[in-house]
User: Fold these one by one.
Assistant:
Number 1:
Amino acid sequence: MSEELFVTARNNALIDPSLHIWTWEVAMYLFLGGLTAGIMFFAALITVRNKDQVAPFAAARLALLAPIVLSLGMTTLFMDLEHKLFVYRFYTSFQVTSPMSWGAWILIVIYPVSVLQILSTLRSGYSFIAEFVDRLTIGRLILDWSERYRKEIAFTVIPFAVVLGIYTGILLSAFSARPFWNNGVLGILFLVSGMSTAAALVVLLARQHSEKELFTRIDVVLILAEIGLVALALISLASGSAQHLEALESVMGGSYTIPFWVLFVGIGLLIPLLLETLELSGINKSLAMLAPVLVLVGGFALRQVVLDAGQESTWTNYDTQYSSELLQRLQQLD
Amino acid sequence: MTRFAMVIDTRTCIGCGDCVVACKTENNVPEGLNRDWVVEATRGTYPDLKTEFRSERCNHCSNPTCVTLCPTGASHLWKDTNIVLVEPGKCTGCKACIAACPYDARLVMHPDGYIDKCTFCHHRVEKGLDPACVSTCPTSCMHFGSLDDPHSEVSQLLKTREYKVLNPETGNDPNVYYLT
């Protein structure tokens, strides 16, 4: 036998019996951060590729959503902080070894980049807001300037969007103490998932048929890429050390098997892939609005499952064989 | 860097838990939280059983991932030693250090919202005293000192006895040693 028991109590809040420090607030932030990255990326991509006619929504109106979605995400992230008054401490230092510190600064840099992107298409996308800005001389000059450099701004946005999308994954993968996260594929997986959810959002919000079709096509490619990356992530765990194998177990029969395979892989990837393929081939269009909704649900499910399974994965296991059933039998003997 | 270590003799430890009580008293640890704890590990097949008592706490690693992943520098090393402390005034309560610790439960949540943890009683070490847990141990199975000094008690014990650390494969280079 091998049995370890605590002679003195250990029931530390958020830590015992297994880590549960981060809940839906952080998962929501990771999801919305990825979505923001995708939004900025596609708004820029359409501009760079001169596809304004095919995708007018993405070209002119999509970018405005970026700071709104990101602010929502930062709000839930703030909700997770336990020492909220000291949130400014993220911005009194830069810790080069901490992805979270990088992330805090990336978020600050993203806002002005996003604002520039919005300004560069404000007149064509949101003329009623542009009218107000145009009333001021300086506003008019700024709009003129950003419109003139619209393409250059779009080129600048792309790397920032990619960094934002990838960092949320790197943030988790840097935790060597959590075998489930400690995996280089995670950054790319979160980036692709973020782009896929943004493409789904465009399909939901765009009015023009050509735009819906373009982004459905894009989404099919992204979902296929995501399936490949999920497979790579699992292979990476399966070929790892004992801790990685144990972490893998949580989605291969363990407590996160159903959320992972049914909610994320099934409902979030395979069903929308099927629906989108059917739609593009013209076989079934009746469920056109369902696929993008499922992609968004799947994007959140991915973050939540990875967040939860990662926290449960650990290096330190105590072989406690406490059994309430055994205890009851002993009590009956008395 | 001064390397402080705790050396605990699992053969003379009787698992009384005095170290835990001493810690709570010395550091006013909030109710319900534990900076240290005692584990009783039994291995073998009856009647050939072997029991070992381990008083566990933060390992004050030489390569502390909780420090490298802290986004604000709140989690830091004290005065060029391996003693890992948290500065409450810099801590946002993001909990990254909790996730970063491969020994789980090294860092506990203070009710005020910042991260609290074992300090190796640096306020006592500063005065040349042992940490409270070490000085209170009734079987004197706990030892504290610098590994830089080859003549220190901890260095001598590690030179002459068999020992282990918890999960050395984490790469964190822990500094709480268990004599076996």
Note: The radius of gyration of chain A is 23 Å.
Number 2:
Amino acid sequence: MLAEGRQYSRGVAISIDDVSIALGGRTVLQHFNVEIAAGEFVAIVGRSGCGKSTLLRSIIGLETPQRGTISLGSIAHGQPDVRIMFQDSRLLPWKRVLQNVTLGLGAAYSIQAEKILAQVGLADRAHDWPAILSGGQRQRVALARALVHDPSLLLLDEPLGALDALTRIEMQELIENLWWNRGFTAVLVTHDVAEAITLADRVILIEGGRVVLNEFIDLPRPRARGNPGFAALEDRILLRVLQHRTFPVNTSGTREIKQTIL
Amino acid sequence: MNREAKAEFQPRVTVQARNSLQKIGERALPWLVPVALLVLWQWASSTGRLPIRFLPSPRAIVNSFIELSASGELWTHVRVSTMRALLGFAVGGGLGLILGLLTGSFRWAETLLDTTLQMIRNIPALALIPLVILWFGIDESAKLFLVALGVFFPVYINTFHGIQSVDRGLIEMGRTYGLSRWQLYREVILPGALPSILVGVRFSLGFMWVMLIVAETISARSGIGYMTMNARDFMQTDVMVVGILLYALLGKLADLFSKGLERYWLRWHPAYQPAR
């Protein structure tokens, strides 16, 4: 489901069919089914260890499902390109920022690399070593690296988890803008429900190896956190994640903390 | 109120002058003891308190150095010794690098070779000298073998360790960016192992000189060791000290070289960034 106002979609559709993945003897995902439309921004939330990262890694081929298939749709020209952004920037420390962005592409992409570095606000840092950049700057370089070759699918594995709150908000805006303008399909794994609602067209909750919630976000972009619709959605999803129906209040007027069922 | 008044009273000129005086003092002070010792030594030799047979005077050493270098004899010996050391380093270091890369990168190579190499490593190289003389005689190949042996193990072990401890996250990232096996090796694994390899090189340079000195002491017809041993036969203590100082100087140069190499090849490393 594409949001209104999108000019085009270069994205690729993803079809995850009856996938089961076991890691270290433990079944992480079972009979997992999800369809993601081309150009859609999907956020996957869930508790630690629910399998959201594993799902992402299996889409790009870093994990192999024991059963089921993950297939990408076709795009207008050539083969769909998939790129992933990790929680740590994983820049090569012995290459300058520009060489990191053109990794695997060669010097021919230097001009494109400089353009995208300008888009993420790091045009003047193209010749610096990663060692002198801050965490937020490194993640921006990682984002530039992921997008320089115009992928059809961008996977984001909790990329903002290690950043401070303000940098996180800036990065969210950056990711949303780039996604809006380029039209790739985006799958974001995050533990931050507010972040999921800010960025995604749709939020999926994984629990017990399956999809238990599939919430379409109907709010206009850019999402305003102060919006009551936003707050209501966040509350609903968060309560479902934490498995509270409500926060019960006992007779003395104090809040009783219910034991969460894992 | 008091604090403000005190701050106002610090005239800037005196503070600046004190700072530059401090700097000169800091630079000069470490040299105080060596220079004092040198002066004491020269005095002891000049007044005859230090017998020439024991230790020559600093002036005699300097004269000896000038004589030997003028006649060209010094440089011949230095050249011979340096060539031996470099050749041994190339052979031992090259072999250590290749085997380290092999066992670090391929499981089968590690299983096949590492245990054997570790066993050999436990034999002190110097203990092998009688055997080496038996095998190689006392000519150049014996010296080459000893130096190469001393250089081999630090390079091998640190190369092996370097390859094994490359950040797996970076390798994974490289794979997702479509790097071929060879590209992965060249762009991620080798540069990642380089800091460790350079540590191995630095250690091996130390061993290189030790093994060379020992090899030249046993038997030589040229080189600094020969010059020193020859001088001993003629009781020329000044030449002996020149030889010792040459070894020390060359050792220092080798260390500076390897540090320079590190500073260039590792200039991306957080440890080498200018302090902010």
Note: The first helix of chain B runs from residue 2 to 9.
